[in-house]
Every structure is written in C-alpha cells, then in structure tokens.
C-alpha cells in the first residue's frame, strides 16, 4: 500500500508544486524546463509513494487521472494555439494600425483600450480578448509596452469575463452546474471597481514609458477578408460554448468542444487567407508550459476547501494566482455554500496577479516574452493586487455576503 510523505504535516505533493512555482519565478528564462521538471517530479512521487487519490495507484491511477483531465487540457491547448493564429489575422488586417486615429492621443488612449478589452471579454473567451488587446497595444505604442500595462490588459480581460457565463471557463462551469447567470453577473460590481482602480495607474505608466502614436499611417487599406476570418473564429467559439451548454452539456465532459470549434473555423477560413503558421513554435512552448502547471495542479491532494465564507472566497483569489482555478471552482461547486458572484470574481480576476495565473496571462506573455518575470509582473503591475482587494470589499459592502444553499 502506498503511503504519502508528510513534511511537518504538509504533503510532499504541495512542497514539490511550491518548488516548481518558485523555480518558475526565479528562472523566468527557463520556465518551460522548470515546469516540465516539476511535473515529472510530481508524477514520479505519485507513482512511487502517494497514488492519485480517487483514481488509484501506479500507472492505472495515472491513466484514469489523465482520462479525467484530458478534455480540460485539450481545450486549453487548442484555444491557446488557435487564438495565436487569430491574433496574427487581426494584426495583418491592419485594424491595429488604424487604432491611433480612433483612440485619444494621451494616457486616456491606453485607458480606452483597456475598457475595450474588458467589454470584449464579456462575450468572448478572455484569451482572445487579451490577445486582441496585446496586438493593438504593440501597434499604438510603437512596440514598447510596459509590463505593468501588459498585466493590466490581462486583468481587464479576466475582469470582463468574471461576471459572464460565456466569458470565462470558471463561470461557464457554474452555469453548467445549475447556477443562474444572474447570480454570477453580480461579480461585475467588484470587477468594474477593480477596473477603475488599476486601469488609470497602468495607463499613466504606459504613457510615461511610451506615449500612444498620435496619427495613423496614411493610405491604410484594411484587409476585410482577415477581419471576416477573425469574426468567424470568434463567432464559432461563442456559438459552440452557448449551444453546448444549453443543448448538449454532457458533451463538454467528453470532447474539447470550444477548441475544436475554433480550429474548424481556422481551417475552413484558410481558403480566404493562409494563417501565419510561423507563430506556432513559440506559442507551443508557452502552451506546453501552462499545460504542465495545470496538470501538476490537478494532481494536488485538495479534497476539500475550508468552510465556505467571504474570507475563504477572498483567499481563493490569491490562491488562483498560482493554482489552476478550474479545480478550485469544481471543489467549491461540490462543497456549496458560497455566494457565487463573489467566487466568480475571486477565481476569475485573482489569476491576473501573476503572469502564469491565467491562460490569458500566458497567451499575452507568449507575445511579450519579457513579461515572464514574476518579480517584474508584481512590482510593475502592483495596482492589480490592490484593485482585487478593493473590488472585493466594495462588493461586500454594497451587496453583502448571501451564500447559496448546496445544490
């Protein structure tokens, strides 16, 4: 019989995972190698000593565990890779080059761009919204984007999806589980307050670092075929998400529906314009990195959370900055007793505090490798942590904590 190892009462699984995250923070030029090494160590420990909780011990336990997780991992893989191609289509459409003519010429231009990302994320996947924001920023700021502003783009995409059941995987999970979309939409109270807190300082940071381009290049020709391709891909993702949740919810547990819909749209529209496949190798590295962390997190022995309370919900936001928010949300749904608007905000926005805390952060960091530094992300993106806390307590003061009975 396998016996888990405890170090001063802490399961060794958690220590290995914490060391992996510490390694990512310190060796930010070698994040993929660190993540894969950490995952290998955790898998080896599980095989030899601890087993895979409810899935059993040894290789059969590992196989059952991966059978349970593969849909989530496949969806993340397909979405990150697919939306990287979408981002290139959007960039090559020349719309980002036109944006300086549409945005204000001072720091308010950066602020308006963050608001656009926030709004887009309410009905698009937050990965797509963040990549669109990152693409526009590269053009309107002459390729010099402050890391604090990159963090703000990620935060805006996560905040925008926090109150929408089609804007974030965690809120979609709540919808599937029977929680009313009207309950989740309360998260926008905290999300909007958080936006007000972090968006202005981040925009001022960016304006001092590299002001917005004042005028669009003359004689621009928008490639409307690429604009149509971007619209088709986003519409495919949105339609697949809504249709599967309303009509075929069981299908979401057996197939990566969203990812397959995105790639079907990419391949169908390739007859109009060839995707820029050159972005795939670098995107693959970032995607495999995230999948390694998500897989490692899924193996942690988190069988239950502390008793449901607003304090627990607040803490889960900080935990989700380093721990995959999908299993956290699944555990909270199983436990019950949460005010789901608060939980949606916490696990949705909390991941913005670290660059690998959300899939949107990883996607943007694939575009801007200089953002893969935990220290620089936290020190230059400090308004996000403050915004998370302020948004949470304003929501608590205005709405109060009203937990739902377990369902």
Summarize this structure briefly:
The chain has 407 residues and is an all-alpha fold. Helix content is 69%, strand content 1%.
Strand-and-helix sequence, N→C?
EEHHHHHHHHHHHHHHHHHHH
For the biggest sheet, the summary is:
2 strands, antiparallel
Our Rg estimate from Cα atoms comes to: 21 Å
Mean pLDDT: 89
CA-CA gap between termini: 36 Å
Topology:
Layout: E1 6-7, E2 10-11, H1 12-26, H2 31-50, H3 58-92, H4 95-102, H5 107-121, H6 126-140, H7 147-162, H8 169-176, H9 181-184, H10 187-209, H11 224-247, H12 257-269, H13 280-298, H14 310-319, H15 325-335, H16 340-349, H17 359-367, H18 374-380, H19 382-399
Antiparallel strand pairs: 1-2
Helix pairs in contact: 1-2, 2-3, 2-13, 3-6, 3-11, 3-12, 3-13, 4-6, 5-6, 5-7, 5-10, 6-7, 6-17, 7-10, 7-16, 7-17, 7-18, 8-15, 10-16, 10-19, 11-12, 13-17, 14-16, 16-19, 18-19
Notes on the structure:
InterPro entries: NhaD-like. This is Na+/H+ antiporter NhaD/arsenite permease-like protein. Keywords: Membrane, Transmembrane, Transmembrane helix. The chain is mainly α and 407 residues long. It is 69% helix and 1% strand. The protein is built from 19 helices and two strands. It has helices at 12-26, 31-50, 58-92, 95-102, 107-121, 126-140, 147-162, 169-176, 181-184, 187-209, 224-247, 257-269, 280-298, 310-319, 325-335, 340-349, 359-367, 374-380, 382-399; strands at residues 6-7, 10-11. A two-stranded antiparallel sheet has the order 1-2. Helix 14 runs parallel beside helix 16.
